[in-house]
Specification:
- The structure is a homotetramer.
- By secondary structure, chain A is α+β, with helices and mostly antiparallel strands.
- The first copy, chain A, has 2 domains: 8-246, Glutamine Phosphoribosylpyrophosphate, subunit 1, domain 1 (4-Layer Sandwich); 270-318 and 337-441, Rossmann fold (3-Layer(aba) Sandwich).
- Chain A has 18 helices and 24 strands.
- In chain A, the strands form 6 sheets. The first copy, chain A, has a 7-stranded antiparallel beta sheet. Chain A has a 6-stranded antiparallel beta sheet with strand order 5-6-7-8-12-13, with helices on one face.
- Chains in contact: A-B, A-D, B-C, C-D.
Chain lengths: 480, 480, 480, 480
C-alpha cells in the first residue's frame, strides 16, 4: 500500500557448462519482482551469442513459456526488473541493455542512479555520440566501452569506468566470456553472490533470489568491489574499495524482502527491531497492534512482542489486484484503497488500535487507512511509522520525491496526525534507524531522513529535480 | 498453498435507476475472486437488453477497461467467478449463462452442484433437448423455462423448478425486469444481500463483496428462500424454507474470506477459534507458532493466543505468482513450492515450530513445507490442521475428491506424520468443528469429515464420481 | 469494393482413417474465405470426441498454429466461415454449432437462411426450450434432435427435419460416426463433394475448396439430397429431391470464386458471358474497358473480348487493407475508397472509359469510383453493372436489404447515372441473367431482380425485415 | 508470388501547423506497404517532442487505433516500412531510428543499403562507440551527429555526412524543427515530394503515397539533393548533385506500385512496355497470354496488346493469405503455391499458354506455377520473364542473393526451361531493359543483370556477402 516505489533488481548466473540459464534467471527475477514491476528482461549468453527479451510488465507477463524457450540455453545470463524513477519508463528503457562495440557484445543491468549522469552524457554528446535511451545504463555502457578501447580486458574497463561514474550502482555486466558484478564504493544498494551445488555462481540484488534458485549465499559484494566470473574462476578487484560504507537504510525498512539477509541481518528481524524501538519510544495504552500489509506486518509484530499488546490480523489485502487493475465507475473510483484493503471488522470494533505502516510520504494513503479503521468501529487509532519522517529527496534511486510532496516538510507531527485522522502519530527515531541491523550505528545512508548525503550532489542534479518536471513535459520545446 | 479448490461466487445488483452496474459487479467479483479463478462473467441488463462478457481467466484478465465499457450501463447486472469442479472447464462453461426462451431473456449463475443433474439432463434429452454445455446451470435453466411455460411469473417458475433440482445451489437469476436470488433448502453455500446508500440492492456469496461496493449487509438469504427484487420492492417466497440448515463448515475453515461475516460470525474469528481448539487438544511444548499463508495464518494466531506460545511470521508468499506462472527448467521444476513460499530463516532456525495449515488432502504440499522448515533449521516441526481429516468425497461443489486421493483414508495419523516428515501431527477435532461459529453445534454439513450427508446421494452420482474419469477422457467413444 | 456481403461457406471431410483433418479443413476454409469473413470455426471428430474452436475473425486470425494443434487429429471434421446477415454477429453465433443430445454429440454448419425460423423457434419456446444463440442453426439442431428421439438414425432424423425446415440451407452435420451433407429442395446455394487420392471424401460449398485440398470433384449434392458418409461408404437419400431447382444466380455474378465450377459452368466464364451480354446490349463507343477489382474484372474482360475495345488495368487495389483497417484522421476519413483503390492514371487520362462493376446497391461506392476516374482525367465514364438492377430483398441469405436501401427501387436508370456521375449507365438484362451458365434459362432464383421467389414468404418473415431493425436495437424493451 | 523481397519505403510530412500527421503518415505507409512488410514505424514531432511507435508487422498490425491515438498530433512526422535484407530483422531494427544527441532529438529512416557501412562502423567502434542495432541507419545517425558537433545546422551535418556514407539511400531525417529529405548521388532508389491543398509537404518513396494522402506530386528529389522543409519554406542543397544517375531498373519491373509515376513514367506503362518488348523478341504462336498475379499482369497485357494474342485471367490469388499464414499438415505443406494461387481451369484447358512473370530467381516457384498450368490442361506453356536473367548480386538493398542461388548463373536458358517444365523460356533483353521508361537508355543501374555497378564495391563488402552467413549464425563465437 506504500506510496514509495522501489527501483530495480539485478541478477546474473555463470554456470560451468551450458544449461537452462534463462529458467534460472526467470526464477531469480521472480524473487526480485518486489524491487521493480515496470519492466523485466533477460539476456542469455550462448557461447558469445546474446539472445535478449525485455519488455514492460511483470516477469510473468514478459516471459511466456514461448519467450523463455526462444532464449535457449547458455552458460551465462543476466536479468533485470525495473521501476522507473526519475527518467521516463516504457519499453525503450527496459534493461538489460545490450550493445555491440569494438570487442563484441556487452550486456548490462543496473540497480541505482548516477549523480553525474547528466554531465557524462553531455560530454559524450559533445563528441557526437547518440543515445537511444534516457537511462543511466547507456551512459555507463559508453563509459565502459570508451575505457575498453584502451584497456586490456573488460574487467579493467569496468574498473576504469568506475573512476568516472558517480552515484549508486549495483551492476551486472556480461561480455562474451565473462560475468562481472560491481558495486559502487559506498555500497548504496545491496548486491551479493552465492553458489549452487552444480557449481553455478549466482549474483543477485538480494539473497532471497539465491534461495529461489537453490544457491547458497557466499557473501555480499563489497562496496567498490568488482568481481569477475570466468571459466578459470573468480577474480576480485578491490581498486575502489575502502571508502565509507553507506547502504540505504530504507532497504531494511521497505525495499528488501523480509526473508533476505543483508550483511548478516535478516530484513524481517530489522523490521521487528523497528517495531520494538517504536514500542520503547511510544508506550501507548491500546488493545491491539495491527500492521498494514505487507510491509507493516513485521514491525507490528515487533511492537507487539516488545509491548505485550496483542498482535492482530486487522486487514485482508486483495491479492488478485495486479498492475493492470482498472478502476471503472464514477462512484467507486475515489476509493481504490477500499478495493485493495479490507478491514476484519471483528478484530477492530471497539478497540484502541495501534496501526503500524512502513512510512508516510504524502499522507493520503494513511488517511484512507485510518478512515477504514474508524468506519470499522475502532475506538482509537494510533499511527506509527517504522521509518523516520522523510525530509529530503533521494538521489540514489529510491523514489522519494522533492520536498514539495513530503508531508513532513510542511507539517508538524501533530498537524499530520490531524490530517490523517489519527489520535496520535509517531515516527521511528532518527537515532534508532541506524541500529536496525543490530550493529554499531554506522554504515548507512539515511539522507532522506537526516540530509547527510554520502556523495556531493552536483549543482545540475540538485536543480534538475525540478527542471526535470519541465524536460519530461511533452510540451517542452527542444528546438534545433 | 492449498490443494483444495474453491468453487464459485455469485453476485447481483438491482439499482433503482440506470447506473454503472457493470463496474459495481466488477468490484464485487474482485472481492469474490478467491472463490474461483478459472473464469469470470458479467451480464448487464439495460432495460431488457442483456449484454454479456465472460471468458476463462481472472476478473482482471477477462474485464479490460474496453470490455467493461462495452457492457454499458443498466439497472441490473449479475456476475460469476468459477472454479471448475467435476465438469470440464473452459470458455464454454463460463457463467452467467444467458438464454432466450418463451418470455424473453434470462441470465443465471450458480454456486454449487446438483446431485440429480444427470437425471434431469437425461429426461430433457429424451424430449429432444439439446445442450451446449456440460454444466448444471444449463439443466437449471431448462428446468426453470419448462416451469415458466405454465407459470404466471419468473419467480413462480424458479420456485417450481426448486421442486425438481436437488443439491447445493446459491442462485442469481435475472429476467428482463427482475433480479431473483435463491438458496437451496439446506443452505449448503452462503448467500447474503445488502443495500447501498443510493438504494441499490446487492446479492453476493459473501459479505466481503457487499463491503467492496459500499453496501450494508441486511441478512443472509435463508435456506430455501427465493428473494425477488423488482421496481416495486422485495418479495420473499418461503415455499422451500423450513428444512434443516446444513451449511458447508469448510466455508469457515477455508473457502470464505476472513473478513466475511456468515450468520453473524466473522470468518477470521472462526479460524482463530479453530486454532484455540487445537491449542486445547494439542498443548505442544514449542517455541513458535507459524501459519501457512494465507489461510493458515488466522488459526496460527488463535493457537498462539490460546497457548501463549509466540506467533511468528515464518513464511513469505510470493505475491507475483499468478495463474499463468510457468515452471520452466528441468532442475527447478519439481519444487514449485519453493518458488511460491520462502521461509524467514531467522524466525525458524533452532526453533521448535508449530506449523498450522488449513487442511491436509494428499499430503504432498505439507511434506514440502515441512521440508522447507527443516532446511531452514527448525529443531522440531509439529503440524496442525485446522480442519479434521478428510474421509469422504463432497457432492456439493467443493473439490474434495474420491477417497483414493485422501491420505487420511489410507493412513493413520502417525503414518501421515511420518510421510510428511513432521514430529507430530494433529487435526481439528470432529466435535470442535461444529462449534467454529461459536454456536450450538448445529447447522453444518461436515460430510467430508463425518460422512453425514444432508441429502440422499443418487446411485448414479455416487458411481459417477469414478465413471466420470472415463467420460471426460478424450478417448471415450460415444458412438451414434 | 462491393456493398453486398456474402453469407457463408461450409466444409466437411470424412477420411478412411485418423489423419490431420483439422489442417485439411483449415485449407478448405481458406479457399472459402470469400464467402464469409466474420467468423470461422472447425470441429474435429476424434473417434466420437469433438474438439471445437470458433471465434470472430478471419481463418488466419482464428486459427493459430497452436489452436490447430490443440484440435488434434481425427477421421472427420467440419468447418464454417460466416458473414452475419439478418441476425447479430459475434462470437456467440459463430458456427459450427456443437450440441449434446440424447444420442451423444452433434456438430452442424449451414449456408443459408430459413424462412420459417421464427415460427419453429416459437414452437420450441412454447415447449420450454432455451436458445443460446439467435441463429437458424440452433433451430435446425433442435428440429433434428427432436426427430432423432423417434428416428432410427441420425440421417433419418435429418430427412425428417427437412419436412419441417423451409428456406435455403446447404448443411453439413457430423455425428460421432457419420458425416452428412444436405441441400435444400430448391438447391438455393451450391454444395458439392469430391474425393482425394487417399480416399478421403470432401464436402464443400464450392469446388475451389476441393481443389485447395487436392480433391477431385465428383458432383454437386443435388437439391433435396441427403448424402451420408460412413465407414461403410456413401448412402444418398432422395426423399426431398424432385422439386424445381432454383439456385441463386448471384453466386455466378458475385458470391462464388471465379475458379469454382458450379453445375459444369466455371464462374469466370459466366462472368465473362455477363460482360459479353453487356457488350451486345450496350455497344458503347469508348477507348478502354476497365473492371472494378476484383469481381468486376472478368465481366470487363468479357465486354472487351466481345466488343473489341481494349481491356485495361485501370485500378490497383491495396491488398494490405484487412478487416481491421482503421480510418483515423478527420480529413481523410470520408474517402476510404481512395485508400483501398487507386487509379492507374496513365491508363485513364484522356480516355472514354467503360467501367464494369458486379452490381450497384446504394450507389455510393459507384459514385466514388466514378469520381476517382474523373479526377484521373477520364473524358467519359460509362458504368455497366454485370447484374440487373436490385429491386427486391433476398430472404435466402444474401445480404440484399430492404427496398429502402436499393437505389434502383427509387430512381430511374437515367437518374442513377446522374447520381453516380456517369455519362451513361447500363444493367445486365433480366433475360440475359438466366443464361449466364450457358444453359437453357432455367434453374435459377433471380428473385432479387424479378421478385419471383421459389418459396412462399411467411407473413412474419416479410414483416420482420423491418421489425428486426427494432429487435436488434439495443434499446428495444423485452419485458417479462 | 515472387521470390524477391522489396526493401523499404520512407515517408515524411511537414505541415504548416499542428494536425493529424500520424494519420497522414499511416495512410502513406499503407500505400508503401508493398515495399516492406516486416516492420513499420512512425515518429510524430510535436513541437520538438518526439513520440514513436514501431514494431514488427504490417502497418495494420503495428498501428491500432489506440496506438495512433497515443502518437497524438504534431506538425511533422516520418514513417518507414521495412523488409530485412542482409541484416537481421526483428523489433530492434525497426525504423525510424530515434536518437538523442548534442542538439536534441533526431529521427531517421532510410531506404537503401550502405556499401561502406562495415568500415564506418569499425571506425566508430574504435572510438568506443556502442551500437544498439545492426542496421545501417545507426551508422548514418552517428555520422550525422559527428558532423553536427562541428556544423552550424542539421542540414549541413547531413550534407557533411554524405561525403562519408556511400551506397544507396533515400533518407528522411527529422530534427525538432526541420524535415530533411536526401537521396544518394546516383539516385539508386526513388524519392519524391508533393504538396497538399492545406500546404503540407509530403515526401515519399513513391508517388502512390502522395496520392493516398491527397497530395499533388511536385517532382522527384534529385540524385544527391538534400531538401529541407522548415517553417520558412524549402531549401535545396545540391552539393552532391551532378553525378551519373543510376536508378534501380528493377523498381519499374517489380518493386514499385503500378500506379506510381517515377521520372514521368508510369510504372504500369513501363511494365506493359516490357511485355511489348517480349512480344517483339518472342513472337510465339499461342492461344492466350496470362500473367502471374500481381506483378506479372501488366507485362502480360503488354504482350497481348503488342501480339494480338488474347489476354486471359488465368489465376486467382487468394487475397486472405497474410504473412501470418501457417501451413499445417504433412501432406499439404509441400505445395503452398497451390494454396495461394488457383488456376481458372476453363481459361487454360486445351490452350497454348504464354505465361508472364516478373522474374525468375531460383526457378522453384516458376516450376510450380508451370505444373499448375499443366495440371489444368495447358497444351503448351511458354514462360516469359519481364526481367533479364539475374547474374549478379545486388549491394544496394534489393534482396538478390549471391550467385549460388541464381539459377541463371548455373544453367543455360534451355536448361532452365527444362527445369521449370516450360516448352520455351524467354527473358527481357538486356538492351530493352534500359528503355522501359520510354527514355534514351540511360540513367539506370542494371548491375544485377549486367554487372555494371555504379559504385566501387569495397573488398570487405564483396567478401562479406558470404562471411555474413557466418556472422549471423547464432553459433558464431565472438569472444572477448
Amino acid at each position: 500500500m506504500s506510496e514509495i516505489h522501489e527501483e530495480c533488481g539485478v541478477f546474473g548466473v555463470f554456470a560451468p557448462e551450458v544449461q537452462e540459464v534463462a529458467a534460472t534467471t526467470y526464477y531469480g527475477l521472480f524473487a526480485l519482482q518486489h524491487r521493480g514491476q515496470e519492466s523485466a528482461g533477460i539476456v542469455v549468453n550462448d557461447d558469445g551469442i546474446f539472445r535478449t527479451h525485455r519488455d514492460a510488465g511483470l516477469v510473468n507477463d514478459v516471459f511466456t513459456a514461448d519467450r523463455l524457450q526462444k532464449l535457449g540455453t547458455g552458460n551465462m545470463a543476466i536479468g533485470h526488473v525495473r521501476y522507473g524513477t526519475k527518467k521516463t519508463g516504457g519499453r525503450e528503457n527496459a534493461q538489460p541493455l545490450v550493445v555491440n562495440h569494438l570487442k563484441g557484445n556487452m550486456a548490462l543491468a543496473q540497480n541505482g542512479c548516477l549523480i553525474n549522469g547528466y554531465e557524462l552524457r553531455s560530454e559524450l554528446e559533445n563528441e557526437g555520440c547518440i543515445f537511444h535511451t534516457t537511462s543511466d545504463i547507456e551512459v555507463i555502457a559508453y563509459t565502459i566501452t570508451k575505457e575498453r578501447v584502451k584497456s586490456r580486458s573488460i574487467e579493467q574497463a569496468v574498473v576504469g569506468a568506475m573512476h568516472r561514474i558517480k552515484g549508486s550502482y549495483s551492476l551486472v555486466v556480461m561480455s562474451p566470456s565473462k560475468l562481472i558484478a560491481a558495486r559502487d564504493p559506498h555500497g548504496l544498494h545491496p548486491l551479493c553472490y552465492g553458489i549452487r551445488e552444480d557449481g553455478a555462481y549466482i549474483v543477485a540484488s538480494e539473497s532471497c533470489a539465491l534461495n529461489a534458485v537453490g544457491a547458497q549465499k557466499i557473501r555480499e559484494i563489497e562496496p567498490g568491489e568488482v568481481l569477475m566470473f570466468t571459466k578459470d574462476g573468480l577474480v576480485s578487484d578491490r581498486t575502489h574499495c575502502g571508502q565509507e560504507k553507506r547502504m540505504c537504510v530504507f532497504e531494511y525498512i521497505y525495499t528488501a524482502r523480509p526473508d533476505s539477509i543483508i550483511d548478516n541481518c535478516c530484513v524481517h528481524d530489522a523490521r521487528r527491531r523497528a517495531g520494538a524501538f517504536l514500542a520503547e519510544k511510544y508506550p501507548i495504552d491500546a488493545d491491539i497492534v495491527v500492521g498494514v500489509p505487507d510491509s507493516g506486518l513485521d514491525a507490528a509484530l515487533g511492537y507487539s512482542q516488545k509491548s505485550g499488546i496483542p498482535y492482530g490480523i486487522g486487514f485482508i489485502k486483495n491479492k488478485y489486484i495486479g498492475r493492470t487493475f482498472i478502476a471503472p465507475g464514477q462512484s467507486v473510483r475515489e476509493d481504490k484503497v477500499r478495493i485493495k484493503l479490507s478491514v476484519v471488522e471483528s478484530v477492530i470494533r471497539g478497540k484502541r488500535v495501534i496501526l503500524v505502516d512502513d512510512s508516510i510520504v504524502r499522507g493520503t494513503t494513511s488517511a484512507r487507512i485510518v478512515k477504514l479503521l474508524r468506519h470499522a468501529g475502532a475506538k482509537e487509532v494510533h499511527m506509527l511509522s517504522s521509518a523516520p519522517a522523510f525530509l529530503n529527496p533521494c538521489y540514489y534511486g529510491t523514489d522519494i520525491d522533492s520536498r514539495d510532496n513530503l508531508i513532513a516538510c510542511h507539517h508538524s507531527v501533530e498537524e499530520i496526525a490531524k490530517i490523517i485522522g489519527a489520535d496520535s502519530l509517531g515516527y521511528l527515531d532518527l537515532q534508532h534507524v541506524k541500529y536496525l541491523d543490530g550493529g554499531d550505528g554506522t554504515g548507512f545512508c539515511c539522507a532522506c531522513f537526516d540530509g547527510d548525503y554520502p556523495t556531493e550532489i552536483p549543482a545540475r542534479t540538485q536543480a534538475s529535480r525540478f527542471e526535470q518536471k519541465i524536460s519530461t513535459n511533452p510540451k517542452f520545446q527542444n528546438k534545433n
